[in-house]
């Protein structure tokens, strides 16, 4: 998921070779994870069932939806369009199944709400990216518009639940994990999906065309506003409270939002301000690549055996 969107960010910035290499790596990773997930479901169905009923773990499965959607969006513009339709179908079915699991969670689950809850929005908006990238667009785009507004509403609902939880029970420094960056990533992917809808405004109701452009600007602005407090929280956690900065899988929750913000910014610039300077677009893309390299390096180092 994170690797795929950083690849697209580099592509938007014109770094075609780096983008292609990273996209190939993303496809290979996706294939390996898909096989591993299928084996886990077959060999350990009880473990999967337990995760799908656990409020602290079920939202993590929406990363499969998002990863499928991000790859399908890129494949939809090339000769592998058939694979894109397959990934879209997988992502759609998975999102519906996972959404059904969410409806069975107890109300007390909101007490443990964190940034991973925004992954449901990320997954839904990734479906919008697919629908606006594949033909027949005159059929798929209206459906994408409905899903996009549902995703925006879902984000608002999730933000309300999480905001209430943070006000009532502020998390300890150790629990202020990088997962909260998904709050920004969910807005960024909503922005990106909105720009792709805007590209097909001829297929949209006339009354919604101006509203869509305004909504995209508002969403991008909100994503931008969230970045300083997220950075400040990281400094508060690691510098003030000295929580060790070691590798954890949640660090990929930083890579994805940064890559998605870079891509969304590029698309907002191209779609709504075509004459704006592209310096920021290139800078953000390479910042996303640097973050990806840093986290990937920590992941590789963490897997090295410790010598006695």
From TrEMBL:
TM region positions: 20-39, 83-103, 115-134, 146-167, 179-198, 210-233, 245-264, 276-295
One GO-annotated biological process of the protein: transmembrane transport
Main subcellular localisation: membrane
Protein name (database record): C4-dicarboxylate transporter
Record keywords: Membrane, Transmembrane, Transmembrane helix
DNA damage listed as a keyword: no
UniProt topology in membrane: Multi-pass membrane protein
Organism: Streptomyces spectabilis
Cell compartments where the protein resides: Membrane
GO cellular component terms, semicolon-separated: membrane
């Amino acid at each position: 998921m994170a690797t795929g969107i950083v690849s697209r960010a580099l592509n938007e910035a014109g770094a075609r070779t780096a983008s292609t290499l990273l996209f190939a790596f993303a496809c290979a990773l996706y294939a390996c994870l898909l096989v591993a997930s299928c084996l886990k479901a077959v060999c350990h169905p009880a473990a999967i069932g337990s995760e799908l009923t656990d409020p602290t773990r079920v939202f993590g499965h929406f990363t499969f939806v998002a990863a499928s959607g991000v790859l399908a969006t890129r494949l939809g513009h090339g000769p592998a369009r058939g694979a894109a339709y397959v990934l879209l179908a997988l992502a759609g079915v998975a999102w519906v199944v996972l959404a059904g699991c969410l409806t069975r969670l107890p109300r007390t689950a909101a007490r443990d709400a964190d940034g991973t809850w925004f992954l449901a929005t990320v997954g839904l908006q990734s479906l919008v990216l697919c629908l606006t990238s594949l033909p027949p667009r005159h059929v798929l785009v209206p459906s994408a518009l409905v899903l996009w507004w549902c995703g925006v509403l879902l984000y608002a609902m999730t933000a309300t639940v999480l905001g209430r939880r943070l006000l009532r029970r502020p998390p300890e420094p150790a629990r202020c994990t990088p997962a909260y960056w998904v709050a920004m990533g969910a807005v960024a992917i909503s922005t990106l999906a909105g720009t792709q809808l805007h590209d097909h405004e001829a297929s949209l109701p006339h009354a919604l065309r101006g509203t869509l452009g305004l909504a995209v600007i508002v969403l991008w602005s909100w994503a931008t506003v969230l970045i300083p407090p997220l950075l400040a929280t990281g400094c508060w956690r690691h510098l003030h409270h000295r929580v060790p900065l070691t590798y954890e899988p949640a660090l990929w929750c930083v890579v994805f939002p940064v890559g998605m913000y870079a891509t969304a910014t590029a698309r907002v610039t191209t779609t709504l301000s075509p004459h704006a300077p592209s310096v920021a677009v290139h800078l953000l893309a390479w910042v996303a690549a640097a973050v990806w390299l840093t986290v990937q390096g920590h992941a590789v180092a963490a897997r090295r055996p410790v010598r006695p």
